[in-house]
């Protein structure tokens, strides 16, 4: 522990630091251009201390927040040492092989100086609309190396001593599909870094830079203390689990993710040895993604309710063999890193279920159902309809899993059917809960969804980056797995099943596209389910009899 | 301004015996959880009176009538003298929060019965492993799909199959539901199917409370519209029961004056309309305070004001910008969206009852957990054991045990001190004064942060605002919070205890109507826009006519929810008055882009702007009495002194009664100002002055 800090000052400054991250977050929301940022809220902001340790986060996306520090430390260790970060610099990268996750995510850092001394670093991560490469938006399903996924920027000073490096910026803009939107979002990112820097300097003016540093250190210590207290309460030992992702759409066969978690005192080590080799297609995760997913799962399992910061990471170590699915080696493609990301989280939680069976739920739907249609109207006009869907939560030992709600490693919002119909040549025939999709158990898994619509334009191409068709959400303690996902197209009364990774399936007017998302796994022996709960399930049609 | 039969004001001569016998007493009643506040204005003399009585939760109408009877006896008027009763109520809110609602059914487009349950997906606690308990107002077994389909352009894609519909209606009838919501896809464009289903259902079940989405909230986005319609349907029996009881009680008392309820938008609505659209009452309670803040801001020539209401458990922040309360098109109750226009309000769980504690990781936390009314703060001596913000204010001498709440009950200072020592000071190894001051510093930082975000999200700067504090617990925190934000002016209304009732007294009738159609903002859309505006105006005029208002007292204004093409959210933009022409659209676009720049720091002159929803606000002036408030009576008492912990140290501080302040005479801080309902703390460096109207304004002195 560092020197004791006044507990009142600790609270006030802690809240003020989170408030700095929130101010940056609001600035991004207010000043950015793209729908990705503004509506899907695909960005995150955080504040680091002078050594690059994350002290405060704006509550946003666990997937981002828990990987920013890895990126920063990687840059400092291998590219630009922290002592070379000068006043007025902004350092940015999107390289998954430099602590990033996939190319659309640009992570920007700005050192904050006061009286010539670095006192903090602000960070803004934004998922940008496009990065060039083989497909709009950066998700090229046929990519077999990262070069096909778009522009890869090593850590560079895009702003040097307060001066935008126009040549470099122009080079980036030249390589993306929507340069105006990209430019707007990028400038918003840089503006938010400065908003955060100013707010940190105000805090330093008020409380003193040294006090700020001591408080930052104390915040990390407190968070670490909370995690260690939770981990110490668990029995020492090694606990193993595995889970799977479906194939990559290029080669058949599910890919195994294996973890061994070793709890020893208040430390925890996660070792992913035994995981499948990296895939040919873009369903790989870099170690940054894997670590971020593992951090999410351990923090959630430990029941941390207060501040999440880098102190939470201290008891955790993550290793994986180089060249496996969860520690992909350059130049493996990684654009669909959310697919393994979800399953890394569910895999770690499954191992925890052996240690704290009364706290850990069965698996949630376990993937992000991104899909898109490239639409061509009769008059030649083109439109792209992009959407995302999810499924049911796993059953908790004490309660049924919620139906159709964001879970786990990501978070997000759906688009109203009426808004889609108003803007696209698509008419829904059903959007509802899928009976019998939740895994049976003493407590039942939450239901997945059915989403079915008629295509109304002349022609179109359907793309999907789905998972969990064959690798179903697991049940626990005798509970059944949730039902897997499905995708099909019906034309003239004939239904054709489509694979999870569908790449450019042609659509014509009158085609009915139907997607079914997985329900969560069940918990406990189904025979032990309360009769009243069984009767209610039948009455409400969550479960159909017979 | 022409006056109608409901009006009363300065035009009547007080010496005219006819005028004296005509109704001239206007009454506002705000029924809260504990107290029923009444304020009245005598239009003949300009006199204002207020009183507080107990709320009667078993039958709120009784409490209301009791309050009126008490006012009648105290202030000397007859029932026949009452010209109007305006009434704010939390009945709808409480019914939802306590789930005291009837069983309901829902009819949707077949295939979309689960929209109500699916919601919008996003969760708030990102690390929780046990799912949130979700609000399901109507279980799946009572949600039914109707065969038929309206398309996005309003076209009938599939007709209603009446035989199949009758099967659905049989199931609704047999389900035991007392209320039924009907919400079909795209009904906001074409309500025909909803109307047909409603008529068929009412023919079969004449007594059922039926609400249709095109009627309650005719706007795009099916989940929000469904949730709003369901809440409305379930509240109809609740509000109908209340209105019946209220009418009976008033009739028994011989009171024949018209009664209006206050809606979430701050406007009044007739009882008949309220029974049809009870969902519009969900924010009735707090909107009175915002109305009053808006009026007082205007009277004090302070166009930018943050109104804060700090009570026992919550801190409500509302914004008056450029002289007008800010309104949003959607609010939330208990996790469910309510898609009707309402006063914008940001609430955090922080108040006098907020509990201070040391958490498992050894950190000091204040709130959001509250001691509530029971057991309440430790010093109330009703069994509370954890120190609260109120306890700390007492310990630091900011509250006086002898005068708290008019000295009505004794406070246990020693109990509060012991709790602080045991629960906070000892575990954190702090001396008690430091611990107490620390708790206040932590809670003040939270209050300041909530204000900062209410403004920041709109692109506004706190330093351009004055802070107006009107909750019972707020007076001790307002100046320290202002200082935290760089705000240099703090306003304390003359009578904060009935401030909300005071605002209600000023209310006018207001109907908010809307129509959704996604249209590009260009000349080609003008015919459609004109038609929509005409429809809205006609419906607004009908509603005001039904309210019995003369044409002269009526006014309408249009606004448009606009966005750049492709955006998924809209900005409500006022439409210029006058006929809709190409110039109107140019002007409207310019206004939208100015709002967009303010809120999002950029505009995009190249991009297409589209309309999503056109809104009409129809107002009927109730012509609130505008006589100046009576002069302040000064008691001329000499200040007493007591030891107060302020600006980090114990000091002998003058303590003044509010009614001893002479208008225009500055009182330098540090000072404590007391009145029966609240206590105000003026920090060092601030000066407080009472205005002629009796309101108090504190200003920070510029640094030397």
Which whole number gives the mean pLDDT of chain B? 89
Distance between the termini of chain A: 62 Å
- Count of the separate structural domains of chain A: 2
Q: Would you identify the regions of chain A where 5 or more consecutive residues have pLDDT less than 50? A: none
Explain this structure to me?
The complex is a heterodimer of chains A (546) and B (704). Chain A has 546 residues and is α+β, with helices and mostly antiparallel strands. Chain A has 2 domains: 7-224, no CATH class; 361-546, no CATH class. In chain A, 28% of the residues lie in helices and 23% in strands. Chain A contains 11 helices and 20 strands. In chain A, the strands form 4 sheets. A 7-stranded antiparallel β-sheet of chain A has the order 2-1-5-4-3-6-7, sandwiched between helices. Chain A has a 5-stranded antiparallel β-sheet with strand order 14-15-20-17-18, with helices on one face. Chain B has 704 residues and is an alpha+beta fold. Among the domains of chain B are: 17-96 and 241-281, Nucleotidyltransferase, domain 5; 101-123 and 131-232, 3-Layer(aba) Sandwich (Rossmann fold); 509-620, Dna Ligase, domain 1 (2-Layer Sandwich), CATH 3.30.1490; 640-700, no CATH class. Chain B has 17 helices and 35 strands. In chain B, strands 13, 14, 15, 20, 23, 24, 31, 34 and 35 form a 9-stranded mixed β-sheet that branches. In chain B, strands 3-2-1-4-11-12 form a 6-stranded mixed β-sheet, with helices on both faces. In chain B, strand 13 (305-310) and strand 14 form a beta hairpin. In chain B, helix 2 crosses helix 8, helix 3 packs across helix 8 (222-253) and helix 11 (389-395) crosses helix 12 (413-428). Chain B starts with 16 loop residues before the first helix and ends with a strand. Classes of the chains: A alpha+beta (546), B alpha+beta (704). At the A-B interface, helix 1, helix 7, helix 8, helix 10 and strand 14 of A face helix 4, helix 8 and helix 13 of B.
């Amino acid at each position: 522990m560092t020197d004791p800090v006044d507990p009142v000052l600790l609270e006030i400054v802690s809240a003020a630091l989170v408030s700095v991250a929130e101010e940056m977050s609001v600035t991004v929301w207010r000043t950015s251009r793209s729908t990705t940022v503004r509506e899907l809220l695909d960005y995150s902001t955080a504040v680091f201390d002078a050594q690059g340790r994350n002290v405060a986060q704006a509550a946003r996306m666990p997937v981002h927040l828990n990987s920013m520090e890895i990126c920063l430390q990687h840059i400092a260790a291998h590219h630009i040492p922290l002592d070379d970060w000068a006043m007025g610099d902004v350092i940015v990268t999107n390289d998954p092989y430099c602590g990033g996750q996939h190319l659309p995510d640009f992570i920007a850092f700005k050192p904050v100086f006061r009286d010539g001394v670095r006192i903090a670093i602000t960070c803004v991560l934004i998922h940008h609309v496009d990065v060039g490469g083989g497909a709009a938006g950066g998700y090229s399903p046929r990519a077999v190396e990262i070069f096909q996924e778009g522009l890869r920027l090593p850590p560079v000073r895009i702003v040097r001593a307060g001066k935008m490096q126009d040549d470099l910026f122009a080079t980036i803009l030249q390589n993306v599909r929507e340069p105006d939107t990209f430019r707007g979002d990028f400038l918003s990112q840089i503006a938010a870094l400065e908003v955060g820097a100013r707010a940190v300097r105000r805090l330093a003016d008020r409380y003193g830079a040294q006090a700020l540093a001591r408080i930052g250190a104390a915040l990390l210590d407190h968070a670490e203390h909370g995690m260690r207290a939770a981990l110490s309460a668990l029995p020492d030992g090694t606990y193993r689990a595995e889970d799977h992702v479906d194939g990559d759409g290029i080669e058949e066969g599910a890919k195994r993710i294996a973890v061994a978690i070793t709890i020893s005192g208040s430390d925890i080590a996660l070792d992913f040895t035994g995981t499948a080799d990296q895939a040919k297609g873009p369903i790989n995760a870099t170690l940054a993604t894997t670590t971020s997913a593992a951090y999410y799962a351990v923090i959630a399992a430990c029941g941390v309710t207060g501040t999440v910061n880098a102190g939470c990471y201290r008891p955790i170590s993550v290793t994986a063999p180089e060249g496996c699915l969860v520690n992909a080696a350059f130049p493996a493609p990684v654009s669909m890193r959310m697919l393994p990301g979800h399953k890394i989280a569910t895999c770690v939680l499954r191992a925890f279920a052996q240690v704290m069976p009364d706290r850990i739920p069965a698996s949630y739907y376990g993937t992000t159902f991104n899909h898109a249609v490239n639409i061509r109207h009769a008059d030649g006009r083109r439109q792209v309809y992009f959407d995302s869907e999810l499924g049911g939560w796993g059953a908790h030992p004490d309660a049924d899993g919620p139906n159709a709600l964001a879970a786990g490693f990501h978070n997000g919002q759906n688009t109203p059917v009426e808004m889609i119909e108003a803007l696209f040549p698509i008419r829904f025939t059903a959007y509802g809960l899928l009976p019998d999709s939740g895994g049976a158990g003493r407590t039942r898994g939450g239901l997945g969804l059915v989403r079915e619509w008629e295509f109304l334009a002349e022609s179109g191409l359907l793309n999907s980056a789905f998972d969990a068709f064959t690798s179903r959400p697991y049940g626990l303690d005798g509970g059944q797995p949730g039902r897997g996902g499905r995708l099909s197209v019906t034309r003239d009364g004939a239904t054709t099943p489509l694979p999870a990774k569908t790449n450019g399936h042609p659509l014509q007017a009158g085609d009915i596209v139907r997607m079914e998302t997985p329900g969560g796994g069940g918990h406990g022996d189904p025979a032990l389910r309360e009769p009243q709960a069984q009767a209610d399930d039948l009455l409400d049609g969550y479960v159909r009899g017979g | 301004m022409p006056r109608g039969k409901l009006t009363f004001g300065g035009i009547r001569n007080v010496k005219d015996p006819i005028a004296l016998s005509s109704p001239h007493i206007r009454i506002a009643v705000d029924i809260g959880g504990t107290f029923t506040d009444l304020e009245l204005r005598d239009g003949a003399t300009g006199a204002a009176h207020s009183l507080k009585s107990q709320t009667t939760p078993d039958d709120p109408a009784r409490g209301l009538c009791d309050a009126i009877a008490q006012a009648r006896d105290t202030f000397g008027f007859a029932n026949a003298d009452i010209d109007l009763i305006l009434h704010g109520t939390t009945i709808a809110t409480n019914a939802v929060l306590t789930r005291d609602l009837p069983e309901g059914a829902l009819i949707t487009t077949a295939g979309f019965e689960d929209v109500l349950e699916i919601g919008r997906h996003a969760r708030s606690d990102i690390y929780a492993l046990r799912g949130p308990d979700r609000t399901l107002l109507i279980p799946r077994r009572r949600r039914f799909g109707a065969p038929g389909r309206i398309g996005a352009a309003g076209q009938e894609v599939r007709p209603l199959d009446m035989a199949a519909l009758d099967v659905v209606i049989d199931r609704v009838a047999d389900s035991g539901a007392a209320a039924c919501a009907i919400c079909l896809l795209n009904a906001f464009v074409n309500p025909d199917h909803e109307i047909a289903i409603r008529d068929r259902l009412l023919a079969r079940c004449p007594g059922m409370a039926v609400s249709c989405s095109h009627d309650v909230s005719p706007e795009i986005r099916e989940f929000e519209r469904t949730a709003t319609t369901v809440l409305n349907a379930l509240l109809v029996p609740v509000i109908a029961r209340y209105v019946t009881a209220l009418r009976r009680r008033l009739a028994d008392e011989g009171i024949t004056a018209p009664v209006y309820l206050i809606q979430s938008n701050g406007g009044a609505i007739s009882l008949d309309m309220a029974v049809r659209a009870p969902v519009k009452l969900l924010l009735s309670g707090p909107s009175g305070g915002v109305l009053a803040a808006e009026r007082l801001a205007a009277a004090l020539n302070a166009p930018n004001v943050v109104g804060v209401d700090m009570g026992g458990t919550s801190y409500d922040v509302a914004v008056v910008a450029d002289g007008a309360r800010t309104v949003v098109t959607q609010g939330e109750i208990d996790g469910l969206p309510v898609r009707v226009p309402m006063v914008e309000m940001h609430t955090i769980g922080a108040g006098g009852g907020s509990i201070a504690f040391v958490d498992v990781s050894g950190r000091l936390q204040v709130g959001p957990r509250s001691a509530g009314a029971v057991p309440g703060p430790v010093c109330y001596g009703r069994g509370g054991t954890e120190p609260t913000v109120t306890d700390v204010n007492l310990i630091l001498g900011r509250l006086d045990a002898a005068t708290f709440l008019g000295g009505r009950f004794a406070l246990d200072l020693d109990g509060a001190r012991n709790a602080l020592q045991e629960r906070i000071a000892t575990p954190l190894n702090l001396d008690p004064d430091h611990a107490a001051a620390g708790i206040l510093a932590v809670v003040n930082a939270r209050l300041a942060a909530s204000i900062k975000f209410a403004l920041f999200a709109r692109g506004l700067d706190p330093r351009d605002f004055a802070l107006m504090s009107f909750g019972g617990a707020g007076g001790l925190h307002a100046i320290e919070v202002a200082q935290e934000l760089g705000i240099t002016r703090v306003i304390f209304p003359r009578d904060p205890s009935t401030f909300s009732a005071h605002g209600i007294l000023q209310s006018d009738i207001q109907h908010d109507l809307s129509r959704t159609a996604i249209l590009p903002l260009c000349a080609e859309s003008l015919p459609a826009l004109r038609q929509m505006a005409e429809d809205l105006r006609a419906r607004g005029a009908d509603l005001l006519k039904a309210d019995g208002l003369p044409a002269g007292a009526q006014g309408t204004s249009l606004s448009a929810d606009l966005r750049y093409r492709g955006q998924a959210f809209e900005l409500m933009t006022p439409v210029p008055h006058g006929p809709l022409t190409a110039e109107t659209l140019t002007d409207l676009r310019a206004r939208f882009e100015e709002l967009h720049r303010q809120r999002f720091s950029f505009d995009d002159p190249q991009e297409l702007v589209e309309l999503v929803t056109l809104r009409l606000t129809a107002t009927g002036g109730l012509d609130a009495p505008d006589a100046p408030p009576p002069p302040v009576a000064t008691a001329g008492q000499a200040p007493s002194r007591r030891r107060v912990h302020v600006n980090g140290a114990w000091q002998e501080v003058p303590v003044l009664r509010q009614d001893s302040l002479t208008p225009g005479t500055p009182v330098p801080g540090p000072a404590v100002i007391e009145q029966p309902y609240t206590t105000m703390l003026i920090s060092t460096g601030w000066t407080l002055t009472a205005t002629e109207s009796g309101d108090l304004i504190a200003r920070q002195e510029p640094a030397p």
